Amino acid sequence: MTDHGPQPVERQLPTEEARDLIALVRDLVQREIEPHAAEEEDAGRFPREVFGLLSTSGLLALPYAEEFGGGDQPYEVYLQVLEELAAARLTVGLGVSVHTLACHALAGYGTKEQQAEHLPAMLGGGLLGAYCLSEPSAGSDAAALRTRATRDGDTWTLEGTKAWITHGGIADFYTVLARTGGEGAHGITAFLVPGDAPGLSAAPPERKMGMKGSPTAQLHFDGVRIPDARRIGEEGQGFAIALSALDSGRLGISACAIGIAQAALDEALSFLAERRQFGRPLVDFQGLRFMLADMATQIEAGRALYLAAARLRDAGLPFSKQAAMAKLFCTDAAMRVTTDAVQLLGGYGYTADFPAERYMREAKVLQIVEGTNQIQRLVVARHLAGPESR
């Protein structure tokens, strides 16, 4: 690689501990994730052993309380770890974000007894979580979900189907939102469901254009019985819990988007520095240098936006609008940057011999998951102008 090649991201981190953490993650990425990413994605292989290593290293528990085995790190740090993981392989980075999302309800709304019983294993016991909100007919309109939980004494019975579940069929536990009351947002309750619960089954994974190593599947609840001790929060509080989780989850998606955009920029920069045309390196051509400059600017702007939202969250201040802005901007930027990376590599960018085409395919899903970017625009507009007139 020439002097024109990519350099590690210079990060603004609040503590020496955080700098050591980033160094640990970069070492793990270079040893355990990057060497196998392309081959395993092509084969559709989920790296469960990597998630076991992340768990024992404390990297599945970073933003949660040390009392229950968490890393007690601010979101400002956790998200930058997530970005490093996503840059190496989106299946891993997004998987960590989803696991963190699945732990959110119990960590934020569970009783002390529930937290003491379940959180240590969820955070550092090698378990993998998933989050179950969407359904075949309830995507953007999540409050229209139909999966129902019916109470009989101290037991709930769950019936219904969840859709688009990352880690569906392989997770050890699921945070499930189900209807326990009437129609609308106020009739929904959250439950913690074991992955091996009788009556719970998964459909074959979806066949996707990207992220083939990360299973996404429908889940079927056919008389799944759950004790009331696994209900999280109050009856009817589930939708508020879900929205709270999604605000934080959108920051995770934002960090993953900037990670994959950074990886695409690094790939393009390395290629242009090494390849020569018309007697000089491609990186010397002004038109291509301008594209690189635009790509780098979008990445830096996205990183600044998600970190600003994270610092609001860490300070205990409202951050819903900023989370939606970050998710919108960062994922749109990732789509533009990865598309430009393919263009900069020319014909090579369109082949599977280089990772640029994989980055482009994977970036697309980030504009869709955890609220499409059209939904993010609605969220931002409501913060600015209030609810729409009926």
- In what range is the share of β-strand residues? 5-15%
Helix content: 40-55%
Q: Number of DSSP helices?
A: 10
DSSP strand tally:
10
Largest sheet geometry: 4 strands, mixed
Mean pLDDT score: 95
What are the segments in which pLDDT stays under 50 over at least 5 consecutive residues? none
End-to-end Cα distance, whole Å, is 59 Å
How are the strands ordered across the major sheet? 1-4-5-8
Determine the structural class based on helices, strands and strand pairing: alpha+beta
What overall geometry do the principal axes of the alpha carbons give? globular
Rg for CA atoms? 21 Å
Order of helices and strands: HHHHHEEEEEEEEHEEHHHH
Word description of this protein:
The protein is α+β, with helices and mostly antiparallel strands. It contains ten helices and ten strands. It has helices at residues 16-43, 48-56, 75-88, 90-109, 112-124, 238-274, 286-314, 320-345, 356-366, 373-385, and strands at 129-132, 148-152, 155-166, 173-179, 188-194, 200-202, 216-227, 231-232, 276-277, 280-281. It has a four-stranded mixed sheet with strand order 1-4-5-8. A hairpin with an 8-residue loop joins strand 4 and strand 5. The longest helix is centred in the middle third of the chain and has 37 residues, at 238-274. The radius of gyration is 21 Å and the shape is globular. The mean pLDDT is 95.
What tags apply to this protein structure?
390 residues, alpha+beta, 4-stranded mixed beta sheet, 4-stranded antiparallel beta sheet, 10 helices, globular
